[in-house]
Design brief:
- The chain has a domain at 23-128.
- The chain is built from 3 helices and 8 strands; from the N terminus they run ααββββββββα.
- The chain has helices at residues 2-17, 24-38, 126-159; strands at residues 45-46, 51-56, 61-66, 70-77, 90-92, 99-100, 105-107, 116-124.
């Protein structure tokens, strides 16, 4: 019985590995294309910024949500792969409740003194935020379909 549960756990673990996601370069390309298509304009400084939540898109891009429901697409330099592994982010602001390009940075508690400086800030409307997340979801769904098709082809080839 113990062996049975080990086999089931192994199958579940392998299925989790097969879950498709976008690579960092695919996500960066998608986000930069979105910026160009939407003709987003940078905002060098955001006043009255209070971090509510964030979403990591890639090692270079985050979406920061500020109260009350304002979204900002932020580009970081250098690339910050540590954010995906940390328990959360810390935001260092030079001036109180203002978020500024170039001087303010993001880091995780585990990576201090490594800093990811805010290079660009793009304010997003609710519609733009939803549009970007929809594009990401549809791209992941396409990868998922491609993965399933490849698995079916591999199964058919194994049967032959």
């Amino acid at each position: 019985m113990k062996r049975f549960w080990l086999v089931i756990a192994g199958i579940i673990a392998l299925a989790g590995c097969a879950t498709p996601s976008l690579t960092n370069s695919e996500m960066v390309t998608l986000v930069e294309q979105f910026i160009a298509d939407e003709e987003l304009e940078r905002d060098h400084t955001v006043n009255a910024f209070r971090l509510d939540s964030y979403a990591e898109l890639s090692h270079e891009y985050l979406i920061l949500r500020s109260s009350p429901r304002r979204y900002y697409l932020v580009k970081l330099v250098p690339r910050c792969s540590e954010i995906g592994f940390g328990p959360g982010i810390l935001l260092h602001r030079r001036f109180g409740n203002t978020l500024s390009e170039g001087t303010d940075f993001i880091y995780t508690p585990d990576t201090l003194p490594f800093r990811c400086y805010i290079n660009k800030i793009y304010p997003l409307t609710r519609e733009q935020h939803d549009g970007l997340t929809d594009q990401i979801k549809s791209k992941i769904e396409v990868k998922e379909l491609e993965l399933k098709e490849q698995q079916l082809e591999d199964e058919e080839a194994a049967k032959s």
